[in-house]
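User: Fold this; tokens only.

Assistant: Input:
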Amino acid sequence: MATTVVVCNGRLRELLAHGDRELPVVFDLPTRLGRDSDSPPAAGHVGRTGVAIDSLDDMRVLFAGIPLHRVSPAMAGGAPAAVMLLLYHLVAEERGVPGHRLSGTVLSAFKEYAVGRAHIFPPRPTRRLAADLLAYCRAEVPRWRTVPAATQAIGTLVRGGSTAEVRQRERIAKLRAWRCQDRVTAALARLAADAAGRGGNILYPMKSALAAGATVGEVCDVLRAEWGAHPAHPSGGHG
């Protein structure tokens, strides 16, 4: 049986085949809270309200066979909006699509905080992350929008369950088995140093860590350790 991310890719291909160019993507609650699918707080929530994205490999699968220079994804990214954009940008770079040809929309981290939804960092670092996301978009992906777009969500098109959760846990276990852990550790250490400081755009060390094979949860955990955390939990009704 296909994993949720594969099923979601099929739905996006169907939309593209019917002429749609604005492709809505909704991430599941653990992803929106910056948790990996195999973390204890994610149990029972993986793939239930959207697609689970734990790593660069998941984003590759999600947009496999889709011409990124011809579509405009609308991502309901939640608090880790910047991480989702960076993963998408990395996939485009792997395919030789420059950032200035990418267009899309992602819900900014501060917008999510302001409306009282699945925010995971305190106000001040959330503002920093939102400001750095805007600066990154201006410099790297100028056609990208960081405000919500009126678009149909695909959460109802994804029906996760126990099998989807098991498959996603298998995917992330394989990722951790083949990646170079020393490279990941070094990249996360650089991210921690940049998060602790005030200079520079935090998205660049985040991008380097994701490219090295770090997971979404590992990147968010580093930021939580440096910035503190809002006590959001999948069972707490956020989302």
